[in-house]
Amino acid sequence: EPEVTQTPSHQVTQMGQEVILRCVPISNHLYFYWYRQILGQKVEFLVSFYNNEISEKSEIFDDQFSVERPDGSNFTLKIRSTKLEDSAMYFCASSTTTDTQYFGPGTRLTVL
Amino acid sequence: QQPVQSPQAVILREGEDAVINCSSSKALYSVHWYRQKHGEAPVFLMILLKGGEQKGHDKISASFNEKKQQSSLYLTASQLSYSGTYFCGTEGTGNTGKLIFGQGTTLQVKP
Predict the structure, then answer these.
(1) Measuring CA to CA, which residue among B94, B78, B99, B102 is closest to residue B22?
(2) What is the pLDDT of residues B12-71, one digit of tens each?
(3) Which of B94, B98, B104 lies closest to A42 in CB terms?
(4) B97 closest CB neighbour out of A41, A95, A104
(5) From the list B32, B40, B103, which residue is nearest A42 (CB)?
């Protein structure tokens, strides 16, 4: 069964450093998303992406964040200058339409 | 804007039933239900689109009352594998897929 994959599974970085989180969505999916979950809290929407552009973003998704689909398979989330409060689990999700979204296993980001 | 789930936590014995509710103050296009086990990704359970349709598979079903902006998830004859945190995600427009998740309901099923 096709699934969303994410790398790395755990990323440790120093405050102020740039990080890139990578995702490979399910191959025939057209809509891509990033969510984050701070430990013990709810899942929060960051951004949705369709047809090579952002379709919606949340207040969390400020100028420090960017997304890209550099080729036909990868979908990346870049955080330009990480802060302590960016420490969280980041989930990528994909869907064929805007309906059923399938989540990847997540990348745990730890900012020191 | 965030949907409100109730109860916050439930403890059941195997074979018992549970209902988890999700309420929104805004008009909804759809409600998505996910289960998350500790340290894992949310796993999709089902989606309900506006129209009030009730869906289900196996012993898990859900309803969506569009007028009341509420959805309920029904777990019958619970199994140990049902343990986890259940999240409802709501979508207002159906255009972008943006899901706003509730705070979650922790379900623990004991033998």
Answers:
(1) B102
(2) 999 999 999 999 998 888 899 999 998 888 999 989 987 766 666 778 999 998 888 899
(3) B104
(4) A95
(5) B103
* CATH architecture of the domain with residue range B4-110: Sandwich (2.60)
Residues in chain B closer than 8 A to A42 (CB atoms): 2, 87, 101-104
Interchain proximity B89–A31, CB inside 8 Å: no
> Do B9 and B20 meet the contact criterion of CB atoms below 8 Å apart?
no
Sign of CA dihedral A86, A94, A45, B6: negative
Instruction: Indicate whether A72 belongs to any domain.
Output: yes
- Domain of A74, CATH number, reads 2.60.40.10
Report the domain count for chain A: 1
Backbone angles phi, psi at B21, to 5 degrees: -110, 150
Q: How many residues belong to chain B?
A: 111
Give the C-alpha distances (Å, rounded to integers) separating A11 from A47, A55, B11: 20, 27, 35
Task: Give the integer Cα–Cα distance in Å for B27 and B16.
Answer: 32
pLDDT digits (tens, 9 = 90+) for A20-37: 999 999 998 999 999 999
Give me B53's structure tokens: 């349709």
Q: Which residue of A has its CA nearest to B50?
A: A99
DSSP B96: S
Q: Which of B98, B100, B101 should we substitute to test contact with A (largest number of A Cβ atoms within 10 Å)?
A: B98
Task: Please state the domain extents for chain B.
Answer: 4-110
Direct distance between the N- and C-terminal alpha carbons of chain A, in angstroms, rounded to an integer: 37
